[in-house]
Amino acid sequence: MKILVTGATGNLGSLVVQELLKIVPAESIAVSVRDPQKAEHLSAQGIDVRQGDFNDYNSLVSAFAGIDRLLIISTDDLQNRVNQQAAAVKAAKEANVSFIAYTSAPNAPNSKLVLAKSHSETEEVIKASGIPYSFLRNNWYLENEMATFQSVLQGGPWVIATGEAKIGWASRRDFAEAAARVLTGEGHENTVYELSGTPLTQEELANIFAEAMNRDVQVQYVDLETYSKMLSSTGMPEAVVGLLASLQKDIGDGELNIESDDLEKLLGHPTTPLKTAFQELLS
User: Which domains does the chain have, with CATH numbers?
Assistant: First the structure.
């Protein structure tokens, strides 16, 4: 069995590869990256590094040749994501890949989250391909809040624009391990997993952060208009400000408040305690 991970030099992909190496030999792992020179450290470990560009269909067909199980990590090109990922699915079909796992969004088909539509459309493309699949609907990476963590460590307030809404944070490594378990395990054909930690409010997360870092944290609730002005004052492009404000609104409306034990079931153990995750992330 040969497993390939796309985007393997990215934040999530690199962790998935690390987790795979704990389960299967390096020669069973392949990766596709735009620039193989950036993956020389993987080649040195015996991993099969292949060139694959989501904007170059033929490169994807070549990269997926001889692959049994494929993890498509969603691209960060929000405008072109669906077309890019549809090309990857088509290439997988041409290369006779027998299983696709895809990192999707929470409750993708029904979510109002601004990012969910492209994930839902990609899920439909994968279903239509006829290739057995597993949709890994990752909730919110703890690392997504890094800007807040750094600001608080520098003495700033913990700014909350999502009110009392709850979010299913977990460490990125936990999501990566779950992906590795699906790629190497059995019985995951045509499955959907809602992968989430225990939903918490931002203030509850701030309290865990305060305990982990052994420091006082000042919580500041703001409305979306104030939040947008705060982002704009940093010189952030208005398009990015608009996207982040939309995300905060959707999260505040409860789009990430999903109760599920799928993550712990896939891991076979409890998720990493957030206190521990903070200490590992910020030590």
Answer: 3-139+171-196+259-271 (3.40.50.720)
